[in-house]
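Appendix C: a fully annotated inverse folding record. The material below is reproduced so that readers can follow the format used throughout the book. The structure is listed first as tokens, followed by the designed sequence.
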């Protein structure tokens, strides 16, 4: 598995280019790369498709199973 950032860089894409290909905002790509956001399955699939890999091949910043606290509409990462 490789991180979203590693896959993106390997394809020679900027954050903005990946965001456009996946039909998401650049802030979404940044947030996922920094571990601030875990993409919902449809977003994860679009990002993976834009990188020509399976969603399971991406090492997402954290998994839903490791989420300890849900506040509002955001998730907090376990440390």
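Designed amino acids, in order:
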């Amino acid at each position: 598995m490789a991180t979203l950032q590693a896959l993106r860089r390997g394809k020679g894409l900027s954050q903005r280019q990946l965001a456009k290909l996946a039909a998401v905002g650049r802030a979404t790509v940044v947030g996922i790369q920094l571990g601030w956001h875990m993409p919902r399955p449809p977003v994860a699939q679009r990002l993976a498709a834009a990188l020509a890999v399976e969603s399971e091949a991406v090492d997402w910043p954290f998994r839903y199973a490791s989420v300890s606290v849900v506040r509002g509409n955001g998730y907090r990462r376990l440390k």
